[in-house]
Amino acid sequence: xxxxxxxxxxxxxxxxxxxxxxxxxxxxxxxxxxxxxxxxxxxxxxxxxxxxxxxxxxxxxxxxxxxxxxxxxxxxxxxxxxxxxxxxxxxxxxxxxxxxxxxxxxxxxxxxxxxxxxxxxxxxxxxxxxxxxxxxxxxxxxxxxxxxxx
Length: 150
Known about the structure:
Subcellular location: Cell membrane
Protein name: UPF0756 membrane protein SAMN05660706_12750
Strand content: under 5%
Radius of gyration: 18 Å
Distance between the termini: 40 Å
Number of strands: 0
Helix content: over 70%
Family: Belongs to the UPF0756 family.
Number of domains: 2
Order of helices and strands: HHHHHHH
Structural class: mainly alpha
Number of helices: 7
Pfam family, one: DUF441
Membrane topology: Multi-pass membrane protein
């Protein structure tokens, strides 16, 4: 079966690295594959990123909705150095994410290396896996930097 060994490897990597997200994603894809629900793959490919980002944004915005963050604190974002740096960081991160998405569209096989790197970061650097897009964005930045010096 096409892709099954790679998904099983990702499942094992996720279990060994104690990354519930990687293990669950691989497991869900294996279930879809073995259930002959392959028509779901194009939908996930087209809209999965948007749905994932929606839930990420929902989780991040809960403090605003619950009133833990006030309008005054939000306005401080525009007038304080940490707030201004956060705005710049957000702009740069979204640019890198866009570059990462383009890289993954051109070279989708890179995802396995990005996931292995993420697992390495989780296990050895105490990192948090928020998604392969930023990793792909950094990879695109590294590749572009190398191209400049060639």
